[in-house]
Amino acid sequence: MKKEQDPLRGDIRADLASTRRQFMGGVGALVLGVSLLPLGIRAAQAAPKQGGSVRFAINDGAQTDSYDPATWQSSFTQVVFGGTLCNALTELDANGVAVPDLAESFAASADLKVWTFKLRPNLKFHDGAPVTANDVIESYRHHMGPKSSSAAKALVDAIVDVKGDGDGAVVFTLSGGNADFPYLVSDCHLVVMPAKAGGGLDWERGVATGPYIIEDSQPGIAVKMKRSPHYHKPGQPYFDAIEFVNIIDIAARTNALLTGEIDYMVDADIKTLTMLEQNADIEISKVSGLRHFSFSMNTTVAPFNNPDVRRALKYAVDREDIVKKAFLGNAKVANDNPIAPQIAFAVNPEPVHSYNIEKAKEYLAKAGLTSVAVNLSVAETAFPNAIDAALLFKEHAAKAGIEINVVREADDGYWDNVWQHKPFVGVDWLGKPTCDSLFTTAYAGGAPWNDTAWKNQRFDELLVLGRAEPDKAKRQEIYAEMQQILHDDGGAIVIAYALFIDAISKKIAHGPIGNMLQCDNFRMAERWWLA
Predict the structure, then answer these.
(1) Residue 173: how many CB atoms within 10 A of its CB?
(2) Where are the alpha helices (DSSP H) in 69-151?
(3) What φ, ψ does residue 110 adopt, rounded to 5°?
(4) Domain for residue 517, yes or no?
(5) Is residue 242 part of a domain?
(6) pLDDT above 80 (res 485)
(7) Cβ-Cβ contacts under 8 Å for 358 (sequence gap 6 or more)
């Protein structure tokens, strides 16, 4: 992290840098046995240049997709709108560090409660209008308030006041200290759009600050975009035009790549990976990000409202068998902890939830049961090879007297109609860069994306303490206890930490690919170029 880009107080800056060094040097590339070096070597042979057009295929768009940042929950909306149409105050660089984006600098008060973000000069929206502090304020207020249903509501609940300091700076006052606030404001939902004259956010037009401007958008089908002449990063983006197409079927995505119809596909088919790797015109990118695959139980619905039933199910799944057979080794076994190993303060709770039929029966007996039957809803879009994983789970659990009926849901509309609607579902979590942001978004009581509807008073108390604790050792203790509580009592059966496995035409060049979120930390359209 460069000092001139990061005016954080010295102790915070050093702590964040130290954190990143630890996971980058330790498990950032090694956790799944993947090296990113070849990608950087190939990209370094050609300097970035402008020109040309490309087509990228994503796999989970829907007809309900809109420009409203409060609604973005799929990879398609987060990559296309969050990472290509828009910008936030900060962004995650290729190493996962929160660096200035629309803000040119940020600084915190001594108690970490007041954060000031200085905006870059001469920022413009796609229509040429200047970006002001009021636009930032209304962009945040869009997610705030008791009536908000935004996916980012839990992240902004701690903001008690946001105001401008002239047109060039925005000051956030929090209810408590938050050492991770620069990471929080990098969230793709917290992008900046124009404010309406009478208050509120003008999101309907699809006008923002990002590297590309919308030319045509057909929800659930495709989005065509062209380079913005007003972009604030000199020389970027590189492509003249870009089109994102929604291709849910993995065989169709593969065929489109092989025939040159598209230049990139998300989630390459691991079953045909060897064939793709042998193609001289295609590069396979394997990145160990924060992604994890889960089977989520709604803890307010029987029988999942019984913690002993939840524990029985956690012992009734053979994660190693699923990683070997469903993911063909392209993942690392998880232990019911959504915090990936490279996130700062990650631990591996004890006991390890390995496959143990006797333990599963023991916990069923504690629940007063000798057997139990449940429905598990999955689709291929839930996560790659989710149906295979669910069928293996069914086979494993049967030996413990647990009958799992695998319900094959439709891919189209899965995230709108099944996730958070059915009581037991497969979930593809892209992850968050810090313990606080993931816990706040998905596991805090009442969080919008708390798909297990789990609530634990001690966990919620520790969440507030952890984000405000400046002492690294004490923070480690707090987050370790939270991970243990979630492991023991939570409703998420975290099966595996997964690779982002994508296939790219070699006509495209790039630098090191971001190791946190999908599609180069959602910024591939801005960072990549034609070779």
Answers:
(1) 14
(2) 75-77, 133-141
(3) -60, -35
(4) yes
(5) yes
(6) yes
(7) none
Distance CA 493, CA 477 (A): 23
**What pLDDT, in 10s, does the model give residues 346-359?**
999 999 999 999 99
C-alpha distances out from residue 381 to 58, 62, 266, 414, 429, Å = 11, 11, 12, 7, 12
Domain assignment present for 9: no
What residues are paired with 124 via a beta bridge?
Answer: 130
Residues 65, 144 within the same domain: no
Cα 92 to Cα 101: distance, rounded to the nearest angstrom: 9
Q: pLDDT tens, 306-345?
A: 999 999 999 999 999 999 999 999 999 999 999 999 889 9
CA 467 to CA 437: how far, in whole Å? 9
Q: Read off the amino acid at residue 432.
A: K
Q: Could you tell me the CA-to-CA distances from 37 to 30, 175, 254, 277, 504 in Å, in that order? A: 12, 43, 25, 17, 16
b/e string for 90-125 if b means 16 or more Cβ within 10 A?
bbbbbbbbbbbbbbbbbebeeebbbbbbbbbeebeb
Which tokens hold the place of 291?
């992604």
Q: How many domains does the chain have?
A: 3
DSSP alpha helix (H) spans, 367-449: 386-398, 414-417, 435-442
pLDDT-above-70 percentage for the chain: 91
Q: On the CB side of 212, how many CA atoms lie within 13 Å of its CA?
A: 30
Return the DSSP state at 176.
S
Q: Which two tokens stand for residue 153?
A: 């509501």
What does the block give as tokens for 526? 């801005």
Let me know: does 34 contact 287? Beta carbons within 8 Å. yes
Identity of the amino acid at 526: E
CA distance 7 to 9: 6
232, 123 Cβ separation under 8 angstroms: yes
Residue 232's identity, in one-letter code, is H
- What is the domain range of residue 459? 292-498
- Give the separation between CA 228 and CA 504, rounded to whole angstroms: 24
Q: What is the tens place of the pLDDT at every residue in 62-96?
A: 999 999 999 998 999 999 999 999 999 999 998 88
Residues 462 and 328 in one domain: yes
* Sign for the pseudo-dihedral over CA of 168, 231, 286, 335: positive
Give CA torsion, residues 223, 227, 233, 238, to 10 deg: 100
Give the angle subtended at the CA of 406 by the CAs of 401 and 409, to the nearest 5°. Answer: 160
Same-domain pairing of 359 and 390 = yes
Around Cβ 161, how many Cβ atoms within 10 Å? Answer: 11
